[in-house]
Amino acid sequence: TNVNTLLCTGANLIEEYRLEIMRKMKIPVLNYYGLTETSGIVLAESSKHQIFGYLPPACKGVKIHLKEIETGKGVYELCINSPNIFIGYLGEKLFKRKMFNTKDLVKQDKKMNLAILGRKDNRMKADNTEWIYPSLLEDWFKKQAYILDCVVNISIKNNKLEIEVLIDSNIQLKLLDIQQEIINDLGIEYKPSSIYYATILRNNLGK
User: Fold this and answer.
1) Where are the beta strands (DSSP E) in 82-136?
2) Residue 1 has what DSSP assignment?
3) Strand partners, 186
4) One-letter-per-residue 3-state SS of 161-187
5) Is the model's pTM score more than 0.90?
6) What angle do the packed helices 175-186 and 134-142 form, to 10 degrees?
7) Beta 194-197 vs 6-8: how paired, if at all?
8) Strand-pair partners of 30
């Protein structure tokens, strides 16, 4: 084959698929990040510098800024500072700006690496007026050794916030203990209203 490198520039790269492709094709798969509003790619890996499981480093001339969210448990909104931030959409007022808030939620580890958790747009307000971010709860479940996969659905029923969690697990779990661990780690507002066992099937984009 004449292909020597594959570039992922669309949906968030699933590391399991990346490793499988690299193993079968014997070529590097590089992760890129960019939005229309950032005028294309602003974070990029190279064949010599790959960060598995995290966002790639900033391109030359680009700076990353983190905006902490309300009750975000160490979670931030990803903001991009770049000389190429676009000036607006057709029909809107056009103006130059250096910073763009992507509304992507990220978490930073001790080595300063950033991992995408989800979108700020998906948040909802809990009964105690705290903001709830479904991606935080989903991320919590996926980090548990006994959980294969998880989906969190948040809705309003009878004027009350309902948090439904679907978990894929091979073992029978003590759900009351899990709820208490969630309260300890994330807060009472993240306590699921219901937890169900399910076989979770995802497409190639992880959805």
Assistant:
1) 99-108, 114-119, 124-125, 131-132
2) -
3) none
4) EEEEEEEECCCCCCHHHHHHHHHHHHC
5) no
6) 120
7) unpaired
8) 7
